[in-house]
Amino acid sequence: MSLRYRVEIRNPARCIGCYSCVFACSRHLFNAVDPKRTAVFVEVDRSGSRAPKVSMCRFCKEPECAYACPHGALQPLPEGGITLTPSKCAVCKTYDCVEACQYKVLVLDEEKKVPILCDRCGECAKYCPHNVFWYTEAPAI
């Protein structure tokens, strides 16, 4: 049985918008530092009128994104969240899954033309200097 992390945002008010989580995610998923290719998102209001907003997959038990996929490329996982079969996704050009995500955290990788999924690696939590994220090792089902 493999291990993966249970990852969630626990202390959003601690986010200062440093993007450490974004860069760690991008490096893990794509071996690049590209804020457009990540599964963790930070919105910073440059006027300073509101705090940064951090978001990521919420690992829904009933993932609308998977149900919206007309080719079955996205499948729900028993523990919540989704898995992707890229070869099935390659035939779709509608990206209904991206539109179906109610939290707007499923985005399209413009290069590969598939959604970018959080794989629960825990890198966002490991590299966040402000303890915004919570994670623990958990058996993958």
Topology, element by element:
Layout: E1 3-9, H1 20-30, E2 40-43, E3 53-56, H2 64-68, E4 74-76, E5 82-84, H3 86-89, H4 96-100, E6 107-109, E7 114-116, H5 123-127, E8 133-139
Antiparallel strand pairs: 1-8, 2-3, 4-5, 6-7
Please explain how this structure is put together.
The longest helix has 11 residues. This protein starts with a strand and ends with a strand. It has 141 residues and is α+β, with helices and mostly antiparallel strands. The chain is built from 5 helices and 8 strands; from the N terminus they run βαββαββααββαβ.
Pick out its properties.
about 140 residues; alpha+beta; Alpha-Beta Plaits; 2 domains; two-stranded antiparallel sheet; 5 helices; 8 strands
Binned, the helix content reads 10-25%
What is the CATH third-level topology name of the largest domain? Answer: Alpha-Beta Plaits
Overall number of strands: 8
- Biggest sheet architecture: 2 strands, antiparallel
How would you spell out the order of helices and strands? EHEEHEEHHEEHE
Integer-rounded radius of gyration: 15 Å
- What is the 3D form? globular
Instruction: State which percent range the strand residues make up.
Output: 15-25%
Please tell me the overall pLDDT: 91
CATH class of the largest domain: Alpha Beta
- Specify the CATH architecture of the largest domain: 2-Layer Sandwich
* Low-confidence regions: none
Query: Strand order, biggest sheet?
Result: 1-8
Estimate nothing, just give the exact number of structural domains. 2
Total of helices: 5
Q: State the end-to-end distance.
A: 8 Å
The structure class reads: alpha+beta
